[in-house]
Design brief:
8-stranded antiparallel β-barrel, 1 helix, 122 residues
């Protein structure tokens, strides 16, 4: 019986430790793409991510299908480019107070991936 209690206690402690090690993505982040500052506002609820991506050239856009998995984050936004819509995916990994993203545009006459680093806003 004591072994079972110790085993359950160990599982609980390990679960708490894993949660404590997960990156905290909530809040405001600033990413630089070329000469443009992009503001990312993240709201986290468990492993779900919501919020906005605000590019001064295109305005704020709602995050879709946002997911958090430990230090990894992924989501996409949809932007209107001319007469077409483009899906822009963001996939990143947290390291301290920054996130290294790969942003990829699909559709809208544009394509390709770009590495972007976001830093937590003060």
């Amino acid at each position: 019986m004591k072994i079972r209690v110790y085993a359950i206690g160990l599982v609980v402690l390990l679960s708490i430790a894993v949660c404590a090690l997960a990156a905290d993505f909530s809040g405001k982040w600033i990413a630089r793409a070329g000469d443009v500052d992009i503001t990312l506002i993240f709201k986290v609820d468990g492993s779900a991510l919501t919020g906005t991506v605000d590019n001064p050239q295109a305005g704020p856009t709602e995050i879709k299908e946002g997911k958090i998995d430990g230090e990894n984050i992924s989501f996409y936004v949809v932007r209107k480019m001319g007469e077409t819509e483009a899906k822009i995916s963001w996939k990143g990994k947290a390291s301290g107070s920054e996130i290294k993203f790969v942003r990829e545009t699909m559709g809208g006459g544009q394509g390709g991936a770009m590495e972007i680093i976001a830093k937590r806003a003060q």
